[in-house]
Amino acid sequence: MKQTVDSIRTDLLAKKTSAEEIAHEALKYAEAENPKTNAYLTFSPERALAAAKAVDQKIAAGEDPGPLAGVPIAVKDVILTRGLRTTCGSRMLETYIPPYDATAVIRIEQAGGVIIGKTNCDEFAMGSSNENSAFGPVRNPVALDRVPGGSSGGSAAVVAQGTAVLSLGSDTGGSIRQPASFCGVTGVTPTYGRVSRYGLTAFASSLDHIGPFSRTVRDSARLLQVMAGRDEMDSTSAFAPVPDYVAALDGNIKGMKIGIPKEFFDGLASDTGGVIQAAIQTLQKLGCEIREIRLPHTAYAVGCYYIICTAEASSNLARYDGVRYTRRSESAGTLQEMYRKTRDEGFGAECKRRIMLGTYVLSSGYYDAYYLKAQKVRALVAQDYAQAFEQVDAIVGPVSPFPAFKLGEKVDDPTAMYLSDIYTVTGDLAGIPCMSVPAGNTPDGLPVGLQVLANHFNETAMFRVADAFEKISTT
After folding, report:
1. In the annotation, is 118 catalytic?
2. Which of 16, 166, 319, 391 is 20 to 30 Å apart from 313, CA to CA?
3. Tell me: the pLDDT tens digits for 273-293?
4. pLDDT tens for residues 185-202?
5. Active-site residue 53, yes or no?
6. Which fold has domain 5-248?
7. Catalytic residue among 18, 44, 76, 181
8. Catalytic residue among 90, 129, 151, 214, which?
9. Domains of the chain: which residue ranges?
10. Which residue from 175, 150, 184, 167 is spatially nearest to 219, judged by alpha carbons?
């Protein structure tokens, strides 16, 4: 399915096809192709066909069917969908049916979007390879022996595979950008607070974002436009006005100042580095002024991130105790045993690792030494970006030190896995908008993404750079 939002809308309004026909074909194709990648966990034919029928009825009545009319969309399985199973990739929530929709889902369907299914992910969004799902790993459609990235690997894979036109992911430390880079698609992490987190299963609440995947920058801009804006159900959602992102995509970025952080090129694999350097030269040809900048606290970002995110995870995951809506161990004799056995049976190894780390750094005698100090480092990382954006309009660099690695290659080495986030965690710590746009392939044919970062609530500048680069790269 290589269609775009615009091409689907054009066909629908010209009566060349119907939204129901598109939904039927999308579901049929996705179900046939899914065994190759294991990217979907649940399909939603009844919901999809009902939404498609509503679009067709609006068109027949001469009404505007919405900016996402008839577009097949997949949703990461940490985002709640009313009446549709939401597992978070965990045995703990294997049979959980949410009683309400996430705000992002509501806005998508109000805009005419057609949700066809829920995508596989690392358990509770904890991972960088999508090998931590309780329902098996996702395979990268570009190279089936390799990971799609994580934790939103399923959402990136369905767009790359062509089984959805758009998808939703979540990003806490790079979980949208890294899979987008590994799978050769576009992935966007908006400013923290730009998109409501209501209905997003909490991992690390001060870091979690919802964002789009697509094949083009323009489509990601359209989907973000629909989801963005203040939501009274989320106290952290911003009051900032949402500009018309698509209107700004004129392909002209001449004169924009682009920062190149020296720290983002330390330890970068040569095959990835070659693609990124070529991308920077392309931006220079487009008339951008390239400036070297410094982000001096980057070296501390991974350690800082894994203290803060595990601390928040240990608190957020305490609710999964077998009492209310999760699975419950049947072999427990006492309340204490029920808690212990339920969590032992329900959580996978990575969740347990992060819960233990988080509990430790928040424990008496260690709070000041670890958590408080990490928050101070986080402030320094944010300060680095604030100072950089006084000099430049946007920043570019790599998404990951390396392209997609092989399944099983890093799964037994958590430290190596965590270091794959070194170029993405800083954006989340600072809360700024950042994205991955396809930059080219390594000599082995593996995709590499160019990361574009901008100042708070300046997604427009980020999209302009990515769109201009995309236009010249695909011509």
Report:
1. no
2. 166
3. 999 999 999 999 999 999 999
4. 999 999 999 999 999 999
5. no
6. Amidase signature (AS) enzymes (3.90.1300)
7. 76
8. 151
9. 5-248
10. 167
